[in-house]
């Protein structure tokens, strides 16, 4: 069973990520007066309040440091590590969700990002999350299909870290720094 989370805008750093019922709801903001800091907040559907689950420091639209749950900032290269693959273009970007689970993003068919478990001894053939980029009419017009993130229900507990890592990896890919 999986859930489809939609991104409301083409911008990664000013958007909302939510499912159809808004039971899962993330607000991602980079204010005009603080363009170097992106804040990721999760809406607690029971209390109706926002909780900060992470922050990303940016330099020239490229992520450089990450903070989770109000902690200290650490360089993004330490939080999302590049692991070279054995095939050309087979690089992966690995991270830990803080609960001992390791995941890795990789570029898949059709230029989508796929997330798989990177734990030792676990070999998953299918992706546990897939990010589909937005599509435009004739590549320049209005958006014909909004970006979305399809996640398996088994990784909902790790969704805070997954979204933070997605923002870093996709942000780097969009500025051409993902090599």
Rg (CA only): 16 Å
Order of helices and strands: EEEEEEEHEEEEEEEEH
Number of strands: 15
The DSSP helix count reads 2
Gross morphology is globular
Can you give a write-up of this model?
The protein is mainly β. It has helices at 76-79, 159-174; strands at 2-7, 15-18, 25-29, 37-44, 49-59, 62-68, 74-75, 81-83, 92-96, 102-107, 113-117, 129-132, 135-136, 143-145, 148-152. It has a 13-stranded antiparallel β-sheet with strand order 7-6-5-4-3-2-1-15-12-11-10-9-8. The longest helix has 16 residues, at 159-174. It starts with a strand and ends in a 5-residue tail after the last helix.
What's the gist of this structure?
Helices cover 11% and strands 42% of the residues. It has 2 helices and 15 strands.
Overview features:
two-stranded antiparallel ribbon; 179 residues; globular; mainly beta
Question: Which helices and strands occur, and which strands form pairs?
Answer:
Layout: E1 2-7, E2 15-18, E3 25-29, E4 37-44, E5 49-59, E6 62-68, E7 74-75, H1 76-79, E8 81-83, E9 92-96, E10 102-107, E11 113-117, E12 129-132, E13 135-136, E14 143-145, E15 148-152, H2 159-174
Antiparallel strand pairs: 1-2, 1-15, 2-3, 3-4, 4-5, 5-6, 6-7, 8-9, 9-10, 10-11, 11-12, 12-15, 13-14
């Amino acid at each position: 069973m999986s859930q489809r989370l939609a991104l409301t805008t083409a911008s990664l750093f000013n958007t909302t990520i939510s499912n159809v019922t808004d039971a899962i709801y993330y607000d991602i903001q980079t204010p005009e007066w603080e363009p170097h800091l992106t804040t990721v907040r999760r809406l607690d559907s029971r209390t109706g309040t926002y909780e900060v689950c992470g922050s990303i420091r940016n330099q020239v639209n490229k992520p450089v440091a990450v903070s989770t749950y109000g902690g200290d900032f650490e360089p993004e290269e330490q939080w999302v590590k590049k692991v070279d693959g054995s095939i050309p273009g087979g690089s992966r970007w690995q991270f830990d969700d803080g609960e001992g689970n390791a995941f890795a993003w990789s570029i898949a068919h059709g230029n989508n990002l796929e997330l798989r478990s990177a734990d030792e001894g676990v070999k998953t053939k299918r992706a546990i999350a897939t990010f589909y980029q937005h599509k435009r009419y004739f590549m320049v017009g209005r958006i014909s299909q909004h970006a979305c993130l399809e996640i398996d229900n088994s990784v909902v507990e790790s969704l805070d870290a997954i979204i933070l890592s997605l923002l870093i990896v996709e942000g780097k890919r969009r500025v051409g720094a993902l090599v």
